[in-house]
């Protein structure tokens, strides 16, 4: 149903918290009718079960999910099953493998990207930040194929794109290609990867990345797997650049940033303060081979922490489920968020901080005028949805009903 006016009836919305002795013990809910028109929520009214409309059957309405770190252009999804090879141990091993395989992968990239998007839709995702390879092997073909797939899915998905020199900027002479990609309107962020271990320098590649972002009005989203001193120094370098150039504040991110998971508590507190002051965010796929990221400390200091699936059946990892609600559940389990209030707050990691209730229990979403980006979930409240990884029964993007199984 494309941008038509329609009404959802029997929609369950959260209306507040119920307290006992000062503790949130339950989430209040009620049934409503929601009018949708021109991709927006037109009105929210008391429920009228007998009116004409689409019956939500008492399903809980939540904001649609946002996957903030994906590689739609580069995965094995849609190809025969293939587990990760133990022979490829380093990033440079992966680069060599990609140089050999990319020409073959590009042949079916558009079709397989669309299949992956459909897979993510089934878990309630309607927004993705996707990196795309920029390298001498693929040139800019990864971008062109991704743009084509996104055009085909424009009614069901919004995306922002990161130019990602996966094979290093100088290690494989990618500088000119990255400069070309930085000028393109469809590209929102300049990426990079492990500047010290891949390009042999922190300053040279990072200077180029930040200057391209500044010259072209882009953000930055840097892959940083390095865990030792070079990882910390790279994060500090980016913090300093953001402090020197306020236009980068709120537009600069470090993906993975594993070094933060291997610092002392005082060091973590200090760098979290600096990240917050510089407006530099962290993007995480949460756990990674024994590295537990200090998400509670980062959030305590006001650092924006975004969550994504990263790998979904690719040559780097086969464990990405595509399910952002599962990611929120995993965060709750890892950090011990088990109360009604804590679980309801943890949903924010799946929705990029859009929540039905604020911290005090005041209803703040949905409101008339909001974009109609929403999911229906087989749960009684946000806390249950996170705890039980509840089933998504409907996805609506800008008023377009992507699927409806209620």
UniProtKB/TrEMBL annotation:
InterPro entries linked to this entry: Amidohydro_3 (IPR013108), Metal-dep_hydrolase_composite (IPR011059), Metal_Hydrolase (IPR032466), Metallo-hydrolase_Enzymes (IPR052349)
Alphabetically ordered keywords of this record: Hydrolase
Any one GO MF annotation of this record: hydrolase activity, acting on carbon-nitrogen (but not peptide) bonds, in cyclic amidines
Domain Amidohydrolase stretches: 218-402
Lineage top rank: taxon: Bacteria
Gene3D superfamilies: Metal-dependent hydrolases (3.20.20.140), Urease, subunit C, domain 1 (2.30.40.10)
Name recorded for this polypeptide: Cytosine/adenosine deaminase-related metal-dependent hydrolase
Species whose genome carries this gene: Dyadobacter jiangsuensis
């Amino acid at each position: 149903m494309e941008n038509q006016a329609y009404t959802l009836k029997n929609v369950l919305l959260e209306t507040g918290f119920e307290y006992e002795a000062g503790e949130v013990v339950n989430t209040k809910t009620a049934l409503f009718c929601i009018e949708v028109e021109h991709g927006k929520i037109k009105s929210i009214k008391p429920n009228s079960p007998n009116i004409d409309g689409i019956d939500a059957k008492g399903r809980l309405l939540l904001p649609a999910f946002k996957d903030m770190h994906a590689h739609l252009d580069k995965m094995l999804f849609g190809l025969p099953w293939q587990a990760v090879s133990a022979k490829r141990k380093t990033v440079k091993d992966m680069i060599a493998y990609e140089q050999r395989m990319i020409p073959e992968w590009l042949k079916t990239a558009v079709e397989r990207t669309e299949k992956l998007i459909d897979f993510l839709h089934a878990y309630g995702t309607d927004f993705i930040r996707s990196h795309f390879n920029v390298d001498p092997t693929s040139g800019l073909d990864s971008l062109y194929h991704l743009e084509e797939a996104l055009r085909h899915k424009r009614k069901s998905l919004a995306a922002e794109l990161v130019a990602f020199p996966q094979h290093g900027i100088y290690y494989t002479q990618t500088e000119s290609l990255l400069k070309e990609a930085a000028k393109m309107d469809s590209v929102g962020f300049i990426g990079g990867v492990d500047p010290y271990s891949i390009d042999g320098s922190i300053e040279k590649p990072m200077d180029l990345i930040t200057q391209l972002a500044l010259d072209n009005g882009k953000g930055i989203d840097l892959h940083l797997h390095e865990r030792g001193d070079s990882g910390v120094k790279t994060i500090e370098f980016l913090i300093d650049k953001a402090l020197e150039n306020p236009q980068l504040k709120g537009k600069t991110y470090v993906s993975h940033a594993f070094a933060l998971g291997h610092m002392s508590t005082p060091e973590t507190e200090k760098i979290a303060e600096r990240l917050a002051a510089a407006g530099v965010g962290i993007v995480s796929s949460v756990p990674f081979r024994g590295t537990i990221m200090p998400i509670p400390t980062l959030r305590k200091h006001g650092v924006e922490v975004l969550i994504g699936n990263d790998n979904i059946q690719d040559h780097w990892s086969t464990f990405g489920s595509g399910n952002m609600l599962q990611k929120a559940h995993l965060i709750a389990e890892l950090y011990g968020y088990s109360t009604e209030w804590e679980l309801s707050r943890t949903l924010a990691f799946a929705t990029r901080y859009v929540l039905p209730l604020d911290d005090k229990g005041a209803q703040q979403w949905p409101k008339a005028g909001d974009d109609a980006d929403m999911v229906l979930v087989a749960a009684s409240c946000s806390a249950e949805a996170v705890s039980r990884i509840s089933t998504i029964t409907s996805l609506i993007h800008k008023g377009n009903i992507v699927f409806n199984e209620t």
